[in-house]
Amino acid sequence: MEIDYAEVISAENELNLAVGVHFEDEPDSYYVVDVLASPEGRIRGLELMFNGFACKYTFKPEEKEQLVRYLNAHNPLALPWTIPDEEAGGK
To answer: What's the domain count of the chain?
Structure first.
C-alpha cells in the first residue's frame, strides 16, 4: 500500500480524516481510507472507500501500522496518532 496524502475532513467532537492510497497490485486504482478518531488521535475505525463507496476490506496489521506511521510523520493536527487493535476493527 502506498500513501499519497492525508487531510482532515472534520475536527469537532470526533476527527475524520481522508488518507489517499493505492495498492501495488492495482497501481491505477485510487482509494481513500476513511479514518475515524478521537480528538486525542486514538483511531477508532478504518474504512476503505472507492469512488465514494465502502469496500469490504480487512486491513492487515502492517497496513494499519503504516497508516499510523504516516499520520505521525506528516502529523495533521499535531497529535500522537495511535490505533488500538480492539477499537480499529480492521474494517
So the answer is: 1
